[in-house]
């Protein structure tokens, strides 16, 4: 193909016009269905035919299929919940970890509101997953009020890592990694807890009592 282009440019400089490709290639009429292809692929993701299909983890979504026994009269009502996820996100797991920890223990409305003001790619992804989980809770899990939900679990795990080649100086090559991550979220019905992480932070009075107790029990070493 490159030689044909050079011949066309040469004939154009000489003042000749090329009517068809048979002027350059005598047997070009016999060539049919010519499709230029490249046999060099730097990674398996570039080749469509031989691409590896990376399956998403399905163990977390099986919690939606759990069937609980009937509750006894007078027993505390079991809150409804819904599990949702998004697999193989082209985003760093380290950056997604901060977003996942940020929304834990928040109500759905508060989490969506806070994520709307974070200018990060992971915040937009987490917001999308939470809204999808909220919709599934109302449509498939019999949650009456969509605002009566809070983020019970939110975490990210490592996804597929695709290796590629990067060209370096002096005819050397280096390895480049295209990293992905999975994001999981579980919404639970009811109001969010006051303290998500246990033990909860102590108040000023409790800290003062602990300090007084420590001072009363102190002892001078090697004394009478």
TrEMBL record:
<protein>
    <recommendedName>
        <fullName>Large ribosomal subunit protein uL22m</fullName>
    </recommendedName>
</protein>
<dbReference type="InterPro" id="IPR047867">
    <property type="entry name" value="Ribosomal_uL22_bac/org-type"/>
</dbReference>
<dbReference type="GO" id="GO:0003735">
    <property type="term" value="F:structural constituent of ribosome"/>
</dbReference>
<dbReference type="Pfam" id="PF00237">
    <property type="entry name" value="Ribosomal_L22"/>
</dbReference>
<keyword id="KW-0687">Ribonucleoprotein</keyword>
<comment type="similarity">
    <text>Belongs to the universal ribosomal protein uL22 family.</text>
</comment>
<keyword id="KW-0689">Ribosomal protein</keyword>
<dbReference type="GO" id="GO:0005762">
    <property type="term" value="C:mitochondrial large ribosomal subunit"/>
</dbReference>
<dbReference type="InterPro" id="IPR036394">
    <property type="entry name" value="Ribosomal_uL22_sf"/>
</dbReference>
<dbReference type="GO" id="GO:0006412">
    <property type="term" value="P:translation"/>
</dbReference>
<dbReference type="InterPro" id="IPR001063">
    <property type="entry name" value="Ribosomal_uL22"/>
</dbReference>
